[in-house]
Fold this protein.
Amino acid sequence: MTERVLLSELLSRLAHDLRAPLGLVSGALAELGGARTSGPDSAAPGGADEAQQRALRGLAARGVARIERLAERLSLAAALEGGRLTLDRAPCDAAAIARAGSERAALLENRRGVEVELLAPAPVPLSADAARLTFAIAELASNAWRHARSRVRISVGSEEGSVLIEVQDDGAGVPPATRKWLFSRLDPEAGRAAGNLGLALARDLARAHGGDVTLEESEPTRFVLRLPPGP
Amino acid sequence: MPSVLLVDDDEDTRALLAIALAKRGFEVAQARSVADAVERFRAWPTDVLVIDLGLPDGHGADVLRLLGSGAPPAIALTGRDPEPGPFRAHLVKPVTVAALADALRKLLQTLD
C-alpha cells in the first residue's frame, strides 16, 4: 500500500467516523429547534414534548461526547506515533479507574438492555497515569458494550504480582479473520485502515505503563489488561 | 396515520429517527434485531419497514424473508453502495431525517 493510498484511506475513515456523531448532533438540534433541515424535507416541525426534548438533548450530548472521544483518540495516536506520549504517574487505585472507565463508556454507548457488572471488591493499588488508564478501560468497555447481547462484566484483581482488569461480554465473539489484526490501527490484509483504533490505543497505553492488553478468550470475548503492581 | 417499524441496532439513530418521524405524523415502532423485528411486526403490523442492513443477528433482508408474503414494502439503510434486494429504496448512512421522511412519503404515495 503506497503512502498516498494509506493517507486516502485514513482520511476516508476519519470522515466516516465523524459523520455518524455529527449526524446525531445536527439531527437532534434540528428537531429540538424545529430548524429547517437540508434536503427536500420541509422544516422539522416544532413542538417536541418535554420527554422528546430531554431525549434529543441527550442524543446531542452523546454525539458531542463521541466527537470529543474521536479527537482524543487522534491526539493520542499522534503522540504515540511521534514518540511524544507522556505519562503522569502517581499512586492510584485500579478499582476506581475501572469504575471511572466503565462510567465513561456508559455515557458514550447507549445500549438499553445491557447490564454492566463491576467486580471490584477492594482497592487495588498501582502506579499509573489514571487519566490515560481510564481512557484505556473506557475503550475496552465501549467495545464490550457494543458487542454484548445482554451483559458486560468488568473485574479487577491481582495475580502473581500483576494488576489484572478483565472486560468480558456475552456477544458473538471475535471472528477468526478479525483476531489477527484486532489491535492494529490498519488492516494490512484488507489493504485499508480497518483496524480497531480504540483497542489499539488501549493496548498501546497499557504497554506504555509496562503492561499489556490481550484477547484471552474470543467466544465469548474476554480482554485482559495487565499492569505492573503499585508502590 | 401511516405507521413504520424502524429496525436498527444503534439505539441513538433509532431514537432520533423515531422522534423525528413521530413529529411528522407517523406512528413509529422500533426493533433492534432481525428476531425482534419479526416478533414486533407480527404483534403490530406497520405500513412500511425501515431496516438497517447490518443487524447483530443477520442481514436486514432476513426480516423480509422471514415475514414472507406478509411483508410490507421496506426501505434499506446501508453503510455501503445499494445492493440488489427486496427493498423499494436504499438510503446510505448516516441518514438524515429529511431524506428518510422524503423516501417514506414517496413510498407511501405508491401505496395509495
User: Anything to note?
Assistant: The mean pLDDT of chain B is 92. The CA atoms of residues 84 and 90 of chain B lie 10 Å apart. Chain B is about 40% helix and 25% strand.
